[in-house]
Amino acid sequence: MKLLEKILIATDLGPASDEIVKNGSELAKLLGAKIVLLYVLDLSNENPKIQDFLLKATKASLNRIKEEIIAKGIECEEPVIASGSAYNEIVREASINEVNLIFIGSGNEKGKTAYSLGLNAKKIIQKTKIPVWVNKPNSNLKISKILCPIDFSDSSALALKNAIVLSKKFNSKLYVLNVYESVHPVDYLDVNYLKNEIENERKKNENEFHDFLSNIDFRGVKYETILLSGFPDIEILAFIREKKIDLLIIGTTGKSGIAKLFLGSTTEKVIRELPCSFITTKSKDLIKLVIETKMNDIDTYFREAELLFKDGFFEKAIQEYNLCLDIDPMHIRSLKGISSVYDVLGDKKKAKYYHDLAYEVYKHMWDEKIEKEVRKNYQVKGDYRLHH
Fold first, then answer.
1. Per CATH, which fold does 142-290 belong to?
2. Model-level pTM?
3. What DSSP assignment string belongs to 271-301?
4. Distance of CA 294 to CAs 291, 303, 304, Å?
5. 10-residue stretch averages of pLDDT, the chain, 388 residues long
6. Where do the domains of the chain lie?
7. What is the CATH number of domain 298-387?
8. In the chain, helix, strand, coil percent, each to 5?
9. Are 30 and 2 in contact (CB under 8 A)?
10. 1-139 carries CATH number 3.40.50.620
């Protein structure tokens, strides 16, 4: 099963590029995605011989990386070499290739150049609707703690949905954090009134937090919800450091100060200060189900259904089980699978229906088997009497 179709890995072939390619490749393998390698070439030097040399050297390096990726059992398309503004080309190629995720490095303070991905991360995040994974230096794909801050917007709901799926894939603990800004005059004379106002505000946000989470399916995920008062940027960064978060997943078109972290004038500073890798999402979903169907291949459908069920895609799992039943209406394992899905969803009536149906099919098949054995034995005995 593929959770993503394509991941674009943008590399600058610099000192940190090996780590970016390694982590991006591991992610692609985990999610069943194909890789598109991209390098933006600086052709500002007008000397044709130098340009030709740079082009050939870049092609050789990218082809070497491609072969290393393929050797790990990961699909990789022909590397793309573009020229121009790095962030523009990354956004453009991501759109052309219809990728589901852009994977880039955050860069570092040393050796800044016009084509350093770290300096372009802000603009890439701002310009694309495609989710962006920014890989921090010295990080890896051993992700045990994921943080998803929410502000009750559609953007944060989408981010949380993706966070839940990735938490399952990485077997990570998920922290869901809401930070509300409490603004009150500091010159209140009535201290008790101020305390009541603060408590009422806390309860209001707590109820909104509860209502928002009531529509989220957390089954199969280890998670914790946290409600804090303060400034989102300060509280989020402090929480990441305190809990040693490995991955931050955040929506960037929300209604609170969270969005400003990655779209405002301080974005570059935040990117540098964040001690962990992060994913930004806007309107497009990171997780795009790609079900590879093979007509009349019941085992393929069944395997897909089992994986979907395991990862919590219950409706999609039922669809795949039904494809098995279209081929073989008496496929007991699919009937049992549908029963198990409905049992998890809490629909006991449908769960029992499919469980009983599986039992009836089993009983029918067993009766047919017994009947065939009886007929077979009877025929053998008859033949024995005729010939002897």
1. Rossmann fold (3.40.50)
2. 0.74
3. HHH-SSEEEEESSS-S---B----TT-HHHH
4. 10, 12, 11
5. 84 86 94 94 76 90 95 95 89 92 76 48 84 88 93 86 92 94 63 77 91 89 94 87 93 61 54 79 69 61 90 90 83 93 93 90 70 53 35
6. 1-139, 142-290, 298-387
7. 1.25.40.10
8. 55, 15, 30
9. no
10. yes
